[in-house]
Amino acid sequence: MQKMYDRMQTQNKDTRLYDHNILNVVNELCMNYKIQPNDILEMGTRKEGTIEAKRLLVYYLSKCKDVSHNKMKKYINGMHHATSIYHQKRLEELFKIEKKLQKLFLQIVHKCDPEKLFEMKKNPILKTELKEYLYNNY
User: CA spacing 20 to 30 A to 105: which of 14, 51, 63, 122?
Assistant: First the structure.
């Protein structure tokens, strides 16, 4: 965990890497999938849980933090922009099939970056699940 904080602090400040919400999302994903931060923040591991956690992080960075696919490599070491695009599209396909995955994503955003949760209303894929989530939690 300390290695992740050190890496984020040594990056250029204008890259927005030192964001506690992102760190909280990574920590939450690690707890949910029982993996280490390096598994998410480094390319190379292809275990199912690790890939799913990485996809959720890519989706969060793209949709909530407005990180372009070209800049994903600053957050996930070694990630090519094409890989980032693929992960986002694949997760959107999975969201249509697995409501449980949508709910997990909304729970993580709610816990780690609550102001972004209400911005998800604009997202057509999460719109229905978000209404239900907000109804049950507020």
Answer: 14
- pTM summary value: 0.85
Token pair of 56 as six digits: 């959720």
CA distance 88 to 131: 22
Half-sphere exposure of 80 (CA within 13 A, CB side): 4
Q: Given CA atoms 92, 111, 99, 52 in this order, what sign does their dihedral have?
A: positive
Cα 123 from Cα 24, distance rounded (Å):
22
In which band, very low, low, confident or very high, does the pLDDT at 13 lie, cut at 50, 70 and 90? very low
Rg (C-alpha) for the chain, rounded Å, is 14
Write out the DSSP string of 51-117. Answer: HHHHHHHHHHHHHTS---GGGGGGTSBT--HHHHHHHHHHHHHHHHH-HHHHHHHHHHHHHH-HHHH
Token pair belonging to 101 = 């995955």
Report phi then psi at 80, rounded to 5: -85, 150
Tell me how far apart the alpha carbons of residues 71 and 67 are, in angstroms, rounded to a whole number: 6
The torsion angles phi and psi of 42, rounded to 5 degrees, stand at -125, 145
